[in-house]
Amino acid sequence: MNKIAVYPGTFDPITNGHIDIIQRSGYLFDKLTIAVNDNQNPAKPYLFNTRERVEMIKKALLPSLNVEVESFKGLLVSYAEKKGAKFIIRGLRALSDFEYEFQMYLMNKKLNSELEIIYFMTNQQYSHLSSSIIKEIAKLGGDTSNFVPSVVEKKLLEKFSVNS
Ligand code: ADP
Predict the structure, then answer these.
(1) Which of 29, 38, 107, 160 is deepest in the core (most CB within 10 A)?
(2) Residue 18: in which H helix or E strand, if any?
(3) CA distance 22 to 78
(4) Active-site residue identified among 25, 53, 90, 131
(5) How many domains is the chain partitioned into structurally?
(6) Beta carbon of 11 within 6 Å of any ligand 1 atom
(7) How would you write 136-159 as a 3-class SS string?
(8) Is the pTM of this model over 0.90?
(9) Domain that holds residue 44
(10) Which of 159, 6, 16 lies closest to 81, judged by CA?
């Protein structure tokens, strides 16, 4: 049986913390789909549109036969079912991630009890990293090169030079 996993997220934009999770989980599955959330959330407006977020991930990752990047709309469990995936990957940083992730875990399990949701503890090196912090640094003219792939650093510079 093929082990198929989906790693869903906003990835607005992808950071080195996400890439670490992709590399660590990629080894464990026959196929891993990085699934960029294309649902609109008024509480969390995107800096980059879906196409930009997908493109940045594709460019940031080394080509790999078992990793693909897509976007999805609607319920994650429905998307996972469509992909034939039995595993969902998520990352955990501080305690603050736990409450939200636990709630999502319970809800997704209720929606599809056959799905297994697997959590990767952050690499200590990336425990402080979030897409929101990166956007804040970039907006204020800070250097993001140690925290994101170069393609993302370039896009952030473009975005904030246009907007300033
Ligand atoms: P969300 O999907 O909640 O909008 P993100 O797109 O930022 O969040 O992240 C997708 C997943 O990756 C989440 O499970 C998040 O906790 C995890 N993640 C984000 N940044 C890191 C990091 N630096 N280390 C480990 N996991 C992370």
Answers:
(1) 29
(2) helix 16-26
(3) 22
(4) 131
(5) 1
(6) yes
(7) HHHHCCCCCCCCCCHHHHHHHHHH
(8) yes
(9) 4-163
(10) 6
What CATH number is associated with residue 144? 3.40.50.620
Record the tokens describing residue 121, joined without a space: 């503890």
Q: What is the number of residues in the chain?
A: 164
103: which residues sit within 8 A by CB, 6+ positions away? Answer: none
Name the residue of 130, 133, 134 whose CB sits within 8 Å of the most ligand 1 atoms, as the mutation to test its pocket: 130
Separation of alpha carbons 133 and 138, rounded Å = 9
pLDDT tens-digit map of 109-145: 999 999 999 999 999 999 999 999 999 999 999 999 9
Residue 62 CB burial class (10 angstroms; 0-12, 13-18, ≥19): exposed
Q: What is the mean pLDDT of the chain?
A: 94
Q: Could you identify the residue written with the tokens 């425990």?
A: 127
